[in-house]
Amino acid sequence: xxxxxxxxxTDREGARDLDAADPLSELRERFYVPDGERxxxxxSLGLASTDAEAALDRAVAQWKEQAIRGWTxxxxxxxxxxxxxxDRLAPLVGAKESEVVVGNSTTVNIHTLIGSMLDAxxxxxxxxxxxxxxxxxxxxxxxxxxxxxxxxxxxxxxxxGDGRTVTTDEVAAALESHDVDIVFMPTVLxxxxxxxxxxxxxxxxxxxxxxxxxxxxxxVGVVPHEFDENEVDFAVWCSxxxxxAGPGAVAGLYVNERHFDADPALAGWWxxxxxxQFEMAHExxxxxxxxxxxIGTIPVLSAAPLDGALDVTHDAGIEALREKSLALTDYLIHxxxxxxxxxxxxxxxxxxxxxxxxHVAIEHPEAYRISQVLxxxxxxxxxxxxxxxxxxxxxxYVGFETVWTVVEDLRDIAxxxxxxxxERESGGVT
Length: 430
What we know:
The protein folds into two domains: 5-30 and 317-419, Aspartate Aminotransferase, domain 1 (Alpha-Beta Complex), CATH 3.90.1150.10; 53-314, Type I PLP-dependent aspartate aminotransferase-like (Major domain) (Aspartate Aminotransferase, domain 2, 3-Layer(aba) Sandwich). The chain has 13 helices and 13 strands. The longest helix is centred in the C-terminal third of the chain and has 22 residues, at 318-339. With 430 residues, the chain is α/β, with parallel strands linked by helices. The radius of gyration is 22 Å and the shape is globular. The two termini are 39 Å apart. Helix 8 (168-177) runs parallel beside helix 9.
């Protein structure tokens, strides 16, 4: 779609030509893009689509018309909603349908899967990294404490050598120097956008007798995965970023079938065997697949938008979405090199497409104030301390011309020091 970086255009007309050649350009018509905004924050919250809206409207209508009968008579029936959505998600992560289920939140799924796997392998030590999204550490530390283990000793973090990325060699070195039972890494680092080597890390973990788990919140829906082929043991993700299922939408999880006999650390009635769930026995009989890690009743009104949003993902095809995503981020990096480096900006995201997720970290000492100027100009991005403006050109609804205009704004703001009109971040960050 875009060709070698050196051949990419740097003018608006060239960007329009790229849009004209984009086979996914019509997807944008299925989304509600806020008026007057250039939305580059799909890695935090994806936009609403007409498909997600229709699915939610359908669920509300079923509630109105069928009331409690919706659990069995709705189409799709609510009772099996988590399993049905898991079936639809399975191809996106390279898994069998029985290995994926929708339920809970991402943090809750980290709690239950880390706890379950610690119990299953009689483990004590989990390897993470110092660039993780904080909730991963909060949840794992809590699970360690519940087992009488001190997180200061048993939660080991790989230290990033450059403050941006985590290399497979760094993971290997940590495994050599610590007795680790579970390796739990993100698929994509939330700040820099680095895509980690899932296959390589899983292989390293297994070579050292550890399980391999991943937080795929920043990749599912924009990066295709092959969890089965890569021998991943378990994974979690949210659905409100690139899957565009709405704020606080129900999360997803994957457990390889070789772990189906593990006892859920956070057992709940929705993880009970479906055939006997309503016998109301006090003894928990877990489902025989990933469904056992559901906990409470499926939140139908938070699950329905995911059902509609997945229509868009499947219509486009995850491979095509990945191709466009890489083309957009290639273009963004190319324009940053050509237009932003002399204004104090630096790209903090790997340039190798195989090591890049769906967003680009644009670094600048005044990143906070620059992000505020962008906000006032209708450019929706987010800031991550200490110096990152995250720009996420979602392949679902962002085009090349929009990327071009955002880069021109970034240049103008820095070149003319527009940010000087804004207050510094509270707390003394400069």
